[in-house]
Structures are given as structure tokens and as C-alpha cells.
TrEMBL record:
Residues 14-124 form the Acyl-CoA dehydrogenase/oxidase N-terminal domain. It comes from Hyphomonas atlantica. Keywords: FAD, Flavoprotein, Oxidoreductase. InterPro entries: Acyl-CoA_DH_CS (IPR006089), Acyl-CoA_Oxase/DH_mid-dom (IPR006091), Acyl-CoA_Oxase/DH_mid-dom_sf (IPR046373), AcylCo_DH-like_C (IPR036250), AcylCo_DH/oxidase_C (IPR009075), AcylCoA_DH/ox_N (IPR013786), AcylCoA_DH/ox_N_sf (IPR037069), AcylCoA_DH/oxidase_NM_dom_sf (IPR009100). It holds the Pfam family Acyl-CoA_dh_N. This is Acyl-CoA dehydrogenase. PROSITE patterns: ACYL_COA_DH_2. Residues 129-218 form the Acyl-CoA oxidase/dehydrogenase middle domain.
Amino acid sequence: MIGGLDIFFDKAELAAIESLRRYLDEQLEPELAAHGEDFVPKDKMQSWTQKLAEFGLVNAPQPESAGGLGLSWKLHVQLIEELAYSSGDLAIAALVNGSAASMLVKLAPEHIKTRYLPRLLAGELFASVGISEPDVGSDVAAAKTRAVRDGDHWVISGEKTWITNGEYSDFFICTCRTGENELTHILLDRNEHPYEVRGIPKIALNRQSTSQVFLDDVRVPVENTIGEIGSGLKNTLTLFERARVHVGSWGYGMARRALDESIKYAIDRSQHGKPIAGHQLIAEKLAVMATEIDAARLLSLRAAGMIDAGQRCDKECAMAKWYGTEIAVSATRQAVQIHGGNGVTKEFIVERLAREAMIAPIPDGTTEIQKLLIGRSLTGVSAFR
Ligand SMILES: Cc1cc2nc3c(=O)[nH]c(=O)nc-3n(C[C@H](O)[C@H](O)[C@H](O)COP(=O)(O)OP(=O)(O)OC[C@H]3O[C@@H](n4cnc5c(N)ncnc54)[C@H](O)[C@@H]3O)c2cc1C
């Protein structure tokens, strides 16, 4: 157990964290190791997400009235850290299912909630949330995918990219342009409103799905609109706030694993007549990694605590996301260095962690965008139009 966690969590919460940790160490990790880094088919991924739901992923922070457990965002952020420690892939799949759940709880009409939420929270269904497009990344307001009204239907055309869970998705919450200055979220059911999905191979995290999604005049009933027509941009920005804290914990969860692997290695490996842990430059690396990971966790727990308290925390969430994901890159890079030549081989997991961590500063707003948001919050002067 991480030192000092009892300052943030009560006994029941600590027990929940410990029992997830036990499942991840004893069951999930051996299964993941046996599977390797290849793409995980949907039924296998589903068996894991269903099991993880028993430990509160992604249902813990959702209200009991919606089928959630009514626990805190703080606890959920800690559960994501634990999952990322064992599997960055499963953590990103859970993060996106969690974002979709939050959107449905907050914005969806009752018939959509009843139909999708219980099974999503139980880990049976997969959701995708689509904002990014080939020409639309950091500038989310520029989304081009068009939904045109035809009677009581939307007709949707366009292309989305980088869509997490795309190949698994049972439904897809798509950000669509419904007017010149108007974005709207619309839910497409994979069976009823078919969209084409194509996986994107990446440097790492290929066990899970990141995809292109093609929409070609897909007809969707207007009753599948999520939130008010025209509220898509505002709702996307609110959604990012919660998602970012979790992306931060995803990052430092991977970093914590890199640290633990490095500590073991530095004690076991001897050079110049003593364990490399005894060489001051190696001790310094470990000290920096450990301190940065703890600092990242403190930023995330603060932001999640503010969400629990209903306080505005866009700046704090941006800090948590930026810092947690950037220290993932630096810590995993140092972990490779501490492992020497072994660090770049498949025998040691720091090689995989370094590739995975490199991805973390990109989704849900890049590091550069987080810094611009923090700057705007400090000065009131926006870098954006
Ligand atoms: C693994 C993964 C999963 C993802 N999952 C999803 C998902 O489920 N749904 C979804 O919609 N999207 C998803 N994304 C997309 C992600 O949100 C975008 O990649 C991200 O917002 C950046 O957009 P971009 O890649 O187009 O880069 P760009 O916006 O083109 O940025 C390129 C570079 O320019 C910088 N830059 C851009 N604007 C500015 C500025 N104003 N000032 C300074 N620098 C700037 C960026 O920081 C970056 O370094 C995912 C991405 C990845 C890698």
C-alpha cells in the first residue's frame, strides 16, 4: 500500500483499493502476460471489464440511482491508478467507458439511460466518445462531422479518428455539427445505426482499440440526442474536466510501476562492487521518480476531491493531467536507463512502459493545451479565439 493513503481514504475505501490490487497482481497480470501485447478480442476484454466492475471500475463514482455505487471520484482516481499500474490498455478502455457513463448520467434522456447505463456500469457494454477528426484535434470547436435534421431523424456524415474502444463499441457518442456555430452530441447504436470502424496500430497500447470511425449518411432518431441541441461544445469541455484527472492518474500509475521495477532492479544489479542502488546518481533518479509520482497523485486527489465537493476545478484538473502524464514519460524513460541494456529488451517491462507512457500526454487535451488552460485561469486572458 502506498504510504499516506489513509489520509485520503477511510478503512472501507482502503480495503476496496487493496482487494483490487490483489486481483490485479494475482489474476489479471498473469492473464495479460499470457496474452502478450496483441489486440484483445472483445469477448476477452469484456470478461475483464466485467470483473473490474466488481471492484468499482467504472461504476464507483456514479450515483446509486443510475446503477452506480455512489462512492467518491477520489476513490475512482485511485482505482484507475491501480489498474494503470498493471495495464495501461485496460485503464484507457475503462477511462472512456467512465467518460461515457458520466455523459449519460448527466445529460441523456431517461430512455437512453435505462437502455445503456446499467450494462455499461456492469462492464458488459463498451462506449466510445468521438470528438477528434482527421483535421480536428486540439481545436475541438472546429468539429466538421455533420448531422442534418430530416424530420424526426439526424442524418450524420463524417469521419472521426483516435476513437478509444472503437472496435469494441456497442454505442458511440458522436460530436456533430448541427449548425454553423452549433455542436451537438448524438448517440449511435452500433447495431441500429451502423458505423464503420477501422483500428489504428500504435507505438503501444495495442491490446485495446483506438480507431477511425466512418459515418456515411447514418440515420439516427432525434431522441438519441445527448444534452440540449447546440450544447455539445460546453458539455465536451465539462466532460474533459473529470476525464483529465483520470488521465493524470493513468499516467502516474504507469510511472509507479516503472519505479517499483527500477527499485527491484537497482537492488539486484551490482556494478563496481555494490548494488547500483548504492550509486548516488541512481539513488537520485529513484528519489526524483518517487517524489514526482507522489506530487502527481496529490494533484489528482486534490482535483478529484474538488469534483466530489462540487467545486469548479478546471485549472486543478489541467494541472493533474499535464503533470501526471508528463512525469509518466520522464519516469519510464529513467526506468529504462536504470535497467541499462536490459531496459530496451522485451524481458523487462520497463521497455513497454516507456512506449505506453509516451502516449499519455496526448489524449484529452495535450500538455500544451493544459498549460494554456492553466494560463487562462491564472490571468483571464485566453490563448484561444
Ligand atoms: C491513444 C489515444 C486515444 C484517444 N482517444 C480519443 C477518443 O476516444 N476520442 C476522441 O475524440 N479523441 C481521442 N484521442 C485524440 C486526442 O484527443 C487528440 O490526439 C488530441 O486532442 C490532440 O489532437 P491532434 O492529435 O490532432 O494534435 P493537434 O491538435 O494537431 O496538435 C499537434 C501539436 O500541436 C500542439 N498544439 C495544438 N494547438 C496548439 C496551441 N493552440 N498552442 C500550442 N500548441 C498547440 C499540440 O499540443 C500538439 O503538440 C485519442 C488520442 C490518442 C493518442
